[in-house]
Amino acid sequence: MSKQVVQLNRVVIRFAGDSGDGMQLTGDRFTSETAGLGNDLSTLPDFPAEIRAPAGTIGGVSAFQLAFADHDITTPGDVPNVLVAMNPAALKANIKDLPRGADLIVNTDEFGKRALEKVGYETNPLEDGSLDQFNVHAVALTSQTVEALKAFDVSKKEAERAKNMYALGLLSWLYSRGHQGTRAFLEKKFASKPDILAANLAAFEAGWSFGETTESFSVQYEVAPAHMPAGVYRNIAGNPALAFGLVAASQKSGLPLFLGGYPITPASDILHELSKHKRFGVVTFQAEDEIAGIGSALGAAYGGALAVTTTSGPGIALKSEAIGLAVSLELPLVIVDVQRGGPSTGLPTKTEQSDLLQAMFGRNGESPVPIVAPKSPSDCFFAAIEAARIAIEYRTPVFLLSDGYLANGSEPWLVPDADSLPTIDPGFATARNHVAADGSEEFWPYLRDPQTLARAWAVPGTPGLEHRIGGLEKADGTGNISYDPENHDTMVRLRQAKVDAIAASIPLLEVDDPDGDARILVLGWGSTFGPIGAACEITRRTGAKVAQAHLRHLNPFPANLGTVLASYDRVIVPEMNLGQLTMLLRAKYLVDVQGINQVRGMPFKSTELVAAIGDALETL
Amino acid sequence: MTATLPSLTLVPKADSPQSAKDFKSDQEVRWCPGCGDYAVLAAVQGFLPELGLRRENIVFVSGIGCSSRFPYYMNTYGMHSIHGRAPAIATGLAVTRPDLSVWVVTGDGDSLSIGGNHLIHALRRNVNLKILLFNNRIYGLTKGQYSPTSEQGKITKSTPQGSLDYAFNPVSLALGAEATFVARTIDSDRKHLTEVLRQAAAHEGTALVEIYQNCNIFNDGAFEPLKDSDTRDDVTMRLVHGEPIRFGKDLEKAVIRTDDGHITVADVAEVGEDAILRHDAHAKDPGLAFALSRLSNPRTLENTPIGVFRDIERPSYDRLVRDQVADVTAREGVGELQSLLTGSDTWTVN
């Protein structure tokens, strides 16, 4: 029986259920099939910090949102067109985001009296008319799954657990997604459990067949492939992209990759990913604490490795002293901060951009550290290479500021040509570099390159260049301990000048201003790129003029930033913090930058930014 | 010959014989006159030529404190890092550079207070590090506060009525962390110190050497009973693997096992020579070594064992790390960047 097929250009689906319902897996599988069909897409996983939060509670709801389209998109969507709610908690937690007329697929089996009471429903929303404005598809997902698996050698509990595959099958039919990828995935995942594999496959097929036959769904949808540049694509999330970037930087610099880290949400996946790639010579060291994570990395850097430590905000707080040591030693080190909600333990699984000032200033003394921030999940790859380049070429710790949204969100990625990635030259010192007054040759570890101000980097094992470095102030050039006041003043200024000099090696800030006469500039950094881009596009469709620019380098800023800021009547900066970039820009450029700030643990919705831009335009 | 020691097989050997002078840097030594650190520095500089390693392949890493200035005075590679973190830093270096001989120099405050965590984890992992723990039972560089090894009741600037903390015994702590090599020696006993360094250098994995070191400014004479020629033989128990544990001026005292399974110090005349325990530094079980470490009186230093408590074989962490990388590479081939980036789940846009 074939149904009417309707073409759509953009769909936003949200899967929501208990933490143990497998919603992240369901979302990942749907994403993978969608990517394979050539749609552009963007995802937003949103889950609690608890591994198995109390079942059936609002706090335990785990959701996965996916936007896919036949055109270029940059956000996972503000509001879903379809909500899959596996229980009353999932319904209650998400229904407020659902627009009138949206499709709502509800697992009716979970809407018993106790489950409803648990989340404060006094009447059953499926029966009391409160959902009349939606297109409700009441489906007994659990019992239909169990019924479909009657003939299989699995327990009732195991059969019930396959309900997410039933839901995936149904959604896959509804949006004309394929079977093959999910089939291959399940075959691999349950290779050693043939009964479970058969049950999951059957649940998926049953969900698909249900869609075909039920009268609840009168139409099937298709979304045509997006027009994207030619090439080979894969889907990628920010954390693996970042890990690949580090491997690439290792290969391109010829330095072995060493990661010293301590598990912390949402950064642990980088440690997990890199631990799989030992055949690239990668060493991952799960240290006893955050301090040992960076300490071991610093030791590896001293030995000539591409050294990395990965963490989130609370871990940076613990590493601060060692970062100061890296500044003083002037050794390459990539410090990855996958930002999450703070302060303190804060919101471990939610996103925020509130570590910018910690990265800038969170150390004792004058302690400048360059900062690079990726703008999208796939950009984490290139940002990691850039952070490594600066670290190696300038002999300095570098912050790579990702965030929880970038880390877990995913998007299609035009796979880069490995050969075309630029090489990084460590330029190790191999010979003595100074002639003493008596004519003898010496090695001065703090003799600098006149252009970059990078110091000579000699690794242990290099004969004749034996030297000692440490956290005490060093004499300019020789690196010997020095408490001389003038020397300290010189060294403090030299370290700052070296970081400032990095600006000469980074691209100028580009502004996207289609007509070239916008009076208002929206400036962002990090993961706000997607929502800001979408908001500017929507604003421009109304005929209004707005310019957009995005900072990849937060320290130092691109050389033309001051000029760019001065050429607009109004500059607004959306940030997921209370105005940290805004503060830096105001301090440095004396420009009356206006912040748009939210700290809700979620990315901006483009509609919120459209409204804020609209307000700014009105008051110009 | 020494470069074929298990811990040093991968470290290149020097082309020509070395002398202590080769290991002295051009930096002025800035410890207080009379400090025990001088003796340790001289002993290390005097011993290293024996190993015959290339100087550029030796690294000293230290934390913060008086003893942690040590690397500046060694004409090798070196890093004077931050308080307590030297074992962590040295771990990253040793794991990535098997061609280096990596030494950690630390003090009782550095390694047992602020850096206690890193010390125990380095010991349990058995990273190929030689840790020289200078124990003077006082904070010197901050001018005289009690340390985690100070005896209870110690009057210091921060404890005018006496310290209340119960002290760490570094040897007991290291044995509790199942360190594979644990020894104790004394700054002023050059011969004994050198012999312990010799055994530590040969050991694959972490070697912890506690060195009783005199701070003549803030805690002078802390180990005097072990040094004074009138008392030292009476209180010092010299541990030698395979030998009966006897001490005293006339070797009249010995360690024996009691009926309830513990060990104690007894008069040889009373118990007879057959009852004397033989020291077994190679025993897999750290129990006896631990029991020996508990015999000494922390206040009077009576019954203080020195020498190698424990020296057992267990693969070093860094060797295991390298083996795993090699195994995976042998099985799956050297990684190829393009295939990593491309992965297995792709689609093509024309």
Give the key terms.
heterodimer, A: 620 residues, alpha/beta, seven-stranded mixed β-sheet, six-stranded mixed β-sheet, 20 helices, 20% strand, globular, B: 350 residues, 18% strand
Outline the fold blueprint.
The complex is a heterodimer of chains A (620) and B (350).
Chain A (H helix, E strand, L loop, with lengths): L3 E5 L1 E9 L4 H14 L3 E7 L14 E9 L12 E4 L2 H7 L8 E5 L5 H6 L16 E5 L1 H8 L7 H6 L1 H12 L5 H10 L4 H20 L5 E5 L7 E7 H16 L3 E5 L6 H8 L7 E4 L3 H13 L3 E6 L1 H17 L3 E7 L16 H6 L9 E2 L6 H16 L2 E7 H5 L1 E5 L19 E2 L5 E2 L25 E3 L14 H17 L9 E2 L7 E6 L3 H13 L5 E5 L1 E3 L5 H6 L3 E6 L4 H10 L4 E4 L8 H13 L2
Parallel strand pairs in A: 1-8, 2-5, 5-6, 6-7, 10-11, 10-12, 12-13, 13-15, 14-15, 21-22, 21-24, 24-25
Antiparallel strand pairs in A: 2-4, 3-4, 9-16, 14-23, 17-18, 20-22
Chain B lengths: L36 H15 L6 E5 L14 E4 L5 H11 L4 E7 H7 L1 H10 L4 E6 L34 H7 L4 E6 L3 H13 L4 E6 L11 H4 L4 H4 E4 L6 E2 L5 E5 L5 E5 H4 L15 H7 L10 E8 L5 H16 L4 H6 L3 E4 L1
Parallel strand pairs in B: 1-2, 1-3, 3-4, 4-6, 5-6, 7-11
Antiparallel strand pairs in B: 5-11, 8-9, 9-10
Description:
- The complex is a heterodimer of chains A (620) and B (350).
- Chain A is an alpha/beta fold.
- Chain A contains 20 helices and 25 strands.
- Chain A is 36% helix and 20% strand.
- The mean pLDDT of chain A is 96.
- Chain B has helices at 37-51, 86-96, 108-114, 116-125, 170-176, 190-202, 224-227, 232-235, 268-271, 287-293, 317-332, 337-342, and strands at residues 58-62, 77-80, 101-107, 130-135, 181-186, 207-212, 236-239, 246-247, 253-257, 263-267, 304-311, 346-349.
- Helix content of chain B is 30%, strand content 18%.
- The mean pLDDT of chain B is 96.
- Chains A and B meet through helix 1, strand 9, helix 9, helix 11 and helix 12 of A and strand 1, strand 2, helix 2, helix 4 and helix 11 of B.
